[in-house]
Design goal:
73 residues; binds zinc ion; two-stranded antiparallel ribbon; elongated; Erythroid Transcription Factor GATA-1, Chain A; alpha+beta
Amino acid sequence: MNRQGDAAPPRKRVTCPACGGPAWFDAGNPWRPFCSERCRNHDLGAWASETYRVASEAPEADDAQPPAPPARH
Ligand SMILES: [Zn+2]
């Protein structure tokens, strides 16, 4: 017995990792968890360049550590 009414699946909203704005995390958002195609491409580009940079440089000088992610409660 499928009762309809209050059984509507809630849309999950997440924070876009690229711009920090709201993004829908469901089938209606092909760029999830990003809010738009622009943000997704931007993040992929940044990730790729970062990977290249790290791969091409020898990590011997270790005084430039990446910032730690903020602690979450
Ligand atoms: Zn965004």
